[in-house]
Write a structure and sequence with these properties.
This protein has helices at 4-22, 41-51, 53-78, 87-114, 123-141; strands spanning 26-30, 37-39, 117-121. By secondary structure, it is mainly alpha-helical. It has one domain (4-141): Butyryl-CoA Dehydrogenase, subunit A, domain 3 (Up-down Bundle). The protein has a three-stranded antiparallel beta sheet. The longest helix is centred in the middle third of the chain and has 28 residues, at 87-114. The protein is elongated and about 55 Å long. The two termini are 24 Å apart.
């Protein structure tokens, strides 16, 4: 049986995800002498649209659409409006959303490795990562249908 709290905690993600998209993921700047500018999911996507549309589409899907589709799908399952057969698809969406967190971490490592730029992680990265991990946990806690044993 599904824990009643999971269905409502999942709904909280409908508020936390959009908040995490506008929260600062990191602060970056050229050398420590210059001020650091904050980068959020939304500002990062806006910058990508100007330079690389295909990457912008990929990041938009991974950071915005995949987590929201998964959260809404889980909510529909929790409230009996969608069959549990779609759980494997929702779990894949959760893993795709986690790929976006990996990309952000990779960018931070690469930029720090160059040494010309200053990069500091910000609270939004932890919020976004926490939302993704919570979503994965909620789908894990959502029971899959049990197969009936014959005989």
């Amino acid at each position: 049986m599904l824990m009643p709290a999971v269905r409502y905690l999942n709904l909280v993600l409908l508020i936390l995800f959009p908040l995490s998209w506008f929260a600062p993921l990191l602060r970056a700047g050229l050398l420590p002498l210059f001020g650091l500018s904050e980068v959020s999911v939304i500002s990062g996507i806006q910058s990508l649209w100007e330079s690389d549309v295909i990457l912008a589409l990929l990041v938009t899907f991974l950071a915005i659409f995949a987590p929201m589709m998964k959260t809404i799908g889980l909510a529909l399952i929790h409230f009996g409006l969608l069959r549990r057969k779609v759980l494997p698809v929702l779990e894949i969406l959760g893993k795709l959303a986690m790929a976006d967190v990996f990309l952000i971490a990779l960018y931070v490592v690469v930029i720090k490795g160059v040494g010309l730029a200053t990069v500091q992680t910000a609270w939004g990265l932890y919020l976004f990562t926490g939302c993704i991990l919570a979503s994965i946990a909620f789908s894990t806690l959502t029971e899959r249908p049990r197969k009936k044993k014959d005989g």
